[in-house]
Amino acid sequence: MTDDVKRFFSNMLHRVAGLRCVMVTDRDGVPLINLEREKSEFVMKPAFLSTFTLAAEQSNKLGLGKNRNIISVYADYQVVQMNKLPLVVTFIGAENCNIGHILAMDQQIDVMLEELKTAVTDS
């Protein structure tokens, strides 16, 4: 189960130009899978890992509905966080990373995470 998910994200890490890191966490920011092409120290900080849930809750208060993705663009990198509750998938890419390529794989990511979601929910 987990090996297939790791293999899928590892292939994605190599296929998407500029993608540096893929991390799957639970909603509290506890890392379940972490694949890195380059060391990303800020990703490992618990405050960073748990921000998606808080940001999604705040954006929901705007009355626009359930938040699916949060994309943050910084000077040297881009962060895409996908809402796959009870999981959160975080992608860290270089400033020139193709975010559209990542977002286009949304359905495939859902399929790959089904068993992992069940395991997290049951425990």
What does this structure look like?
- It is built from 5 helices and 5 strands, in the order αββααβββαα.
- With 123 residues, the chain is an alpha+beta fold.
- A 5-stranded antiparallel β-sheet has the order 2-1-5-4-3, sandwiched between helices.
- β3 and β4 form a beta hairpin.
- It starts with a helix and ends with a helix.
Query: Which sequence of SSEs, written as H and E, runs from N to C?
Result: HEEHHEEEHH
Q: What's the main sheet like?
A: 5 strands, antiparallel
- CA radius of gyration is 14 Å
Number of helices: 5
Unreliable stretches (pLDDT < 50, length at least 5) are none
Mean pLDDT over all positions: 84
Question: What amount of the residues lies in strands?
Answer: 25-35%
Put the structure in a nutshell.
The chain has 123 residues and is an alpha+beta fold. 41% of the residues lie in helices and 28% in strands.
Index terms:
5 helices, alpha+beta, 123 residues
SSE inventory with pairings:
Blueprint (H helix, E strand, L loop, with lengths): L1 H14 L3 E8 L4 E6 L9 H4 L1 H10 L8 E5 L3 E8 L2 E8 L4 H6 L1 H17 L1
Antiparallel strand pairs: 1-2, 1-5, 3-4, 4-5
